[in-house]
Design brief:
The protein is built from eight helices and five strands; from the N terminus they run βααβαβααβαβαα. By secondary structure, it is of the alpha/beta class. The protein has a single domain, classed as SGNH hydrolase (Rossmann fold), CATH 3.40.50.1110. It has a five-stranded parallel β-sheet, sandwiched between helices. Strand 4, helix 6 and strand 5 form a beta-alpha-beta unit. Helix 5 packs parallel to helix 6. The radius of gyration is 16 Å and the shape is globular. 39% of the residues are buried.
């Protein structure tokens, strides 16, 4: 019987990260939850060094880092957050050179005044930023589109932004599948 080692996953982001019950959703990972409700990408960028210092001081560099940010920027009509991420990701790589870093897409929310086209455009920019930085990209559009939309399905709460229990299960499944692919011997 081989020993089971728990991999460390640092999650940085907004309320979608903060409100997840990650211990039960991702039991194969030691999740360090550094989500802050209402946070914009600029604020995450400003606290990045102190968050990484706290995590590293408490143990070691996490195997995985997942960033979920930009939702609040998009909701407030500030579509320039991918530029901020473009400067933030190289700093994060310098701080955690051994970590596998993934940028998560914006969820396919449904709100009046926010079109799916604007979310798709933002996700295209996020994918490009991740690729240019040498990071991974997790596109959660397909799992949510297939399993949780329209909002009348149980993936989102009535506000159309925040996730229900079912929504968190779908997201956690996508995260686990993505992280498993990163640790696969076939992953280059």
């Amino acid at each position: 019987m081989t020993a089971h080692t728990t991999k460390t996953l640092l999650m940085l982001g907004d309320s979608l990260v903060e409100w997840g019950d990650w211990a039960s959703l991702l039991p194969d990972f030691q999740v360090i939850n550094r989500g802050i409700a209402g946070e914009h990408t600029e604020e995450l960028s400003a606290r990045l060094v102190s968050e990484i210092d706290a995590v590293v001081d408490a143990g070691e560099e996490p195997e995985y880092i997942l960033i979920m940010t930009g939702t609040n920027n998009l909701l407030m009509g500030s579509p320039y957050f991918p530029v901020i991420l473009g400067s933030m990701l190289p700093r994060l790589i310098d701080l955690c050179p051994q970590s596998s870093i993934t940028l998560n897409s914006i969820m396919p929310m449904q709100l009046r005044g926010l079109t799916q086209e604007s979310i798709t455009a933002a996700n295209k920019e996020l994918r490009e930023v991740a690729q240019q930085s040498g990071c991974h990209f997790l596109d959660t559009t397909t799992p949510f589109t297939e399993q949780c939309l329209p909002v009348t399905k149980p993936g989102f709460l009535h506000d159309g932004v925040h996730l229900s229990t079912r929504g968190y299960q779908v997201w956690a499944g996508a995260i686990k599948k993505h992280m498993d692919s990163l640790s696969s011997p076939n992953n280059v």
